[in-house]
Design goal:
The structure holds two protein chains of two kinds. Chain A is mostly helical. Helix content of chain A is 76%, strand content 0%. Chain A contains 13 helices and no strands. Chain A has helices at residues 2-10, 13-32, 38-57, 65-102, 106-111, 116-148, 152-159, 163-191, 196-208, 214-217, 221-226, 238-242, 251-274. Chain B has helices at 21-33, 37-61, 63-70, 80-111, 115-119, 125-141, 145-158, 168-196, 199-224, 234-246, 260-281. In chain B, helix 4 crosses helix 9 (199-224) and helix 4 (80-111) packs across helix 10 (234-246). Classes of the chains: A mainly alpha, B mainly alpha. The A-B interface holds A 43, 46-47, 50-51, 53-54, 57-58, 68, 71, 74-75, 78-79, 82-84, 87, 90-91, 94-95, 98-99, 102, 193-197, 199-200, 203 and B 38, 99-100, 111, 198-201, 203-204, 207-208, 211-212, 215-216, 218-220, 222-225.
């Protein structure tokens, strides 16, 4: 044990930290400040645009606040988690490694005197920061626009009612969704030349997961996030009949479970990265 | 041995008529699309529901077998509702197939900057797109209206009571519904593939283009308390259209009653948007980023 600690202390952590920051900065700029990223902004902010139209044209009676709260829960549960964040992270994290291979620029990174794990973790960090910034900001905007029209009642709901707690829970859900899906898409892009079939299978799996037995529900990002939702919107139609209700899991177990899943996936990504070989001719 | 004479001699053999030149591209497109084992696997997978339906039809049309399996129940009836379900299943398999095939048809040409070379041949931009469209539409036909018509013909043959003439509307609905979906899907597939350029991303983008607007439409409907947001929901729009074309009972029980002109208008608008994207992207130029 002491030998391991001694070995760890001898590693050039300061150099790795500098390299990590440099790579992360480059990637964040490439993810956020580019014309190609317009569609991620679209995915994140389109609900805010619709809520803004609602703010402009609809009268906000205090009696409709509960309905709007449920709509907001539906937006997070069905739009952000299943569509917006899913496809946004698919674009961001698939591009980190596979995109570089398609553009035939990954070898520049691999030829530089930097450990591959540092490159991978910096890229993951950059992708996570980009997606979390966008979707958390969009979520905040949604909340503000949804309740600002109610005036004093909305302010009271946010500051003295359950509003602020719901807001914090949604921010946690959005952040964990970005990290969870991001890590899986990074792994898929390392494992397959075309990560899309795998990603789309995951999408189907996430969609049908509520009707699966409780054991299988544990192998899903959305199932962990479902336990963190402050307001649950039930499914409708045939899905409502088939949905398997699992035992409620406390928030910290869900968070730790998901973070554990992310950590395992990242460790395996690092393992794959060490053995990564590029054959541009087959790309 | 040295060759001294390099005189230019123009080709004087038979040339492909102007009208049929897109078919050359379609032929190559088909071989490109079906050259992948995954395409073949997906197509076989897409036909599995038809095999199940065929077994169900056999059971429904055979009084003894039906009595043994479901007794006197009316569960197993071959009618408009049954064919509506079959059409829906096949059309969603067609989406999966299109998401795989369409990027193979276009993205390689764009990604490798081969479009200027292709368009320097005596084929127009319209001919190029038409050729690719034909290749994709034929591939999708293989899992949509062709097996559906086979099922219809089998039902006409196997039904113990006269069935065909009284249900011709179903056959028309199957072909028309599948044809509309094939056209929309092919245009979306080609437009997305030409826009995204990377085959890897184009497959996912195809699903995003279909399902993200559905989510946005759902948000608009819920927040603005209107049904018009559903017009962005392609699955709902197509289900409504197929149900009306076949004459099946309303699947949404009047909750999503969209007028027919609105449905047609949305599909035409989506198709025109795809044509505009193709017009902008399919050009004989090479972009070199410095």
């Amino acid at each position: 044990m002491t030998e391991l600690i001694g070995t760890l202390r001898q590693q050039p952590w300061s150099l790795w930290w500098i390299q990590f920051r440099r790579f992360a900065r480059i990637e964040i700029r490439r993810n956020l400040i580019t014309k190609r990223a317009w569609w991620i902004y679209f995915l994140a902010f389109v609900p805010a645009v619709i809520i803004f139209i609602h703010l402009l044209i609809d009268r906000h009676q205090p009696s409709s606040m509960t309905e709007d709260t449920n709509v907001l829960a539906g937006i997070v549960q069905f739009y952000y988690v299943r569509l917006g964040i899913f496809f946004g992270c698919l674009g961001i994290f698939s591009r980190l490694i596979r995109g570089e291979m398609i553009e035939r620029s990954l070898h520049y990174y691999l030829l530089s005197p930097v450990r591959r794990e540092v490159i991978l973790l910096a890229k993951f960090f950059a992708g996570s920061v980009s997606s979390v910034i966008l979707f958390v900001f969009a979520m905040t905007l949604d909340f503000v626009l949804m309740y600002i029209g109610y005036g004093g009642a909305g302010q009271d709901f946010m500051l003295h009612g359950p509003g602020f707690g719901q807001f914090q829970a949604y921010l946690l859900v959005v952040t964990l969704a970005c990290l969870g899906y991001g890590s899986i898409f990074l792994l898929l892009s390392l494992m397959f030349r075309n990560p899309m079939p795998g990603a789309l299978l995951l999408w189907g799996w996430e969609a049908i997961n509520p009707v699966m037995p409780s054991l299988l529900q544990k192998f899903s990002v959305a199932s962990y996030l479902r336990h963190l939702m402050p307001v649950s919107v039930p499914a409708e139609g045939i899905f409502a009949l088939l949905t398997v209700e699992t035992e409620p899991v406390s928030a910290w177990v869900a968070v730790i479970g998901l973070l554990g899943l992310i950590a395992v996936v990242l460790v395996y990504c690092c393992f794959r990265m060490r053995r990564l070989e590029i054959r541009y001719a087959t790309e | 041995m040295s060759v001294f004479e390099h005189d230019y001699r123009p080709y004087d053999g038979p040339t492909t008529p102007l009208r049929t030149r897109p078919l050359v591209l379609a032929r190559y497109g088909l071989s490109e699309a079906w050259g992948s084992k995954i395409t073949v696997g997906l197509a076989v997978l897409a036909l599995l529901p038809c095999v199940v339906d065929l077994v169900l039809m056999y059971l429904a049309d055979n009084p003894v077998a039906k009595m043994l399996v479901v007794g006197g129940s009316k569960v197993l009836e071959i009618n408009e509702k049954f064919f509506f379900g079959v059409l829906e299943t096949q059309c969603w398999f067609a989406l999966v197939l299109a998401a795989w095939i369409a990027p193979r048809l276009i993205s390689f040409d764009l990604g490798d900057n081969a479009l200027p070379i292709l368009l320097s041949h005596p084929v127009s931009r319209f001919g190029y797109v038409l050729g690719k469209f034909i290749a994709l539409a034929l591939s999708l036909s293989y899992v949509t209206w062709i097996p559906l018509l086979v099922l219809f013909v089998y039902q006409c043959y196997a039904s113990p009571v006269p069935w065909a003439m009284s249900h011709l509307g179903i056959a028309f609905g199957l072909v028309a519904g599948a044809a509309v979906w094939i056209v929309v899907l092919s245009l979306i597939g080609l437009a997305v593939s030409s826009w995204v350029k990377w085959r890897v991303i184009a497959t996912g983008a195809m699903f995003a283009v279909i399902f993200v607007p559905a989510g946005i439409g759902g948000i608009a409907s819920a927040i603005l308390r209107t049904k018009w947001g559903l017009l962005l929901n392609v699955p709902v729009v197509m289900s409504e259209l197929w149900q009306r074309l076949i004459g099946a009972p309303d699947v949404f029980r009047g909750k999503m009653d969209l007028p027919m002109p609105a449905i047609v208008g949305v599909l035409i608008a989506a198709s025109l948007a795809c044509v505009a994207v193709l017009n902008a992207r399919i050009r004989a130029r090479e972009v070199v980023r410095g």
